[in-house]
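User: Just a sanity check before I run the rest of the batch. Below are the structure tokens for the first item. I only need the designed sequence back.
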């Protein structure tokens, strides 16, 4: 049997939010190459003889280099194996798939990309916060604050609803930049930690006091929602 690589989105990490297609592929995988943010329960979805390789990719922690990951995918595929590259969220939303696909295409390896549920959409929903509203939010933007200095904060601050991924470590800078460009101190914020898991926790506070509300807390992984739609949570949460 010829080898093939499946770049699969694991969604929020819980088996409950795994797509049917992802579950089917895990069941027949011969090699599983997975990120650190994937819930370990997902490892029970593969067969006992499946080779499982943890490549890290958790912010601030040691990880396998992207070049090594690319080579692992190519090597196992060329050996005729069915390889699942399991990523948190959706593979094409800050999933760094481009380098892996480029390596696979260069080696003439077959591949398929399987979508997953992004935390950018699911975390606000599970917190009872809609990202759009006919009055309060006619648009929303999703971005990563992994490198806050690379963002156009003047433009970002004008948008009605913001969804920020990988922003826990840079929360002070996020607050500073939004205030700098005119966002009111009273702007509602929600910080959703480990969305969709038993460890889920939510902090709600205005922009002016969110740092005080989360002081001394390790904010990773989190999804940050900023905008008037956060106020709707009191009416919509179960």
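Assistant: Here's the designed sequence for the first item:
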């Amino acid at each position: 049997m010829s080898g093939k690589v499946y770049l699969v989105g694991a969604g929020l990490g819980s088996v409950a939010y795994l797509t049917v297609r992802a579950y089917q592929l895990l069941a027949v995988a011969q090699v599983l190459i997975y990120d650190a943010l994937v819930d370990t329960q997902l490892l029970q979805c593969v067969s006992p003889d499946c080779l499982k390789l943890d490549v890290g990719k958790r912010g601030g922690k040691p990880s396998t280099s992207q070049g090594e990951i690319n080579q692992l995918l190519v090597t196992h595929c060329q050996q005729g194996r069915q390889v699942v590259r399991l990523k948190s969220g959706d593979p094409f939303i800050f999933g760094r798939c481009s380098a892996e696909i480029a390596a696979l295409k260069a080696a003439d390896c077959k591949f398929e990309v399987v979508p997953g549920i992004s935390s950018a959409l699911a975390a606000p929903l599970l917190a009872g916060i809609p990202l759009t509203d006919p009055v309060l939010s006619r648009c929303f933007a999703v971005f990563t604050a992994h490198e806050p200095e690379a963002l156009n904060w003047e433009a970002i601050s004008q948008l009605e609803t913001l969804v920020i991924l990988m922003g826990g470590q840079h929360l002070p800078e996020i607050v500073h930049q939004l205030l700098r460009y005119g966002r009111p101190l009273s702007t509602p914020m929600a910080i959703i930690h480990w969305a969709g898991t038993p460890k889920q926790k939510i902090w709600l506070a205005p922009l002016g006091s969110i740092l005080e509300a989360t002081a001394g807390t390790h904010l990773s992984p989190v999804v940050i929602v900023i905008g008037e739609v956060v106020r709707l949570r009191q009416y919509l949460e179960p």
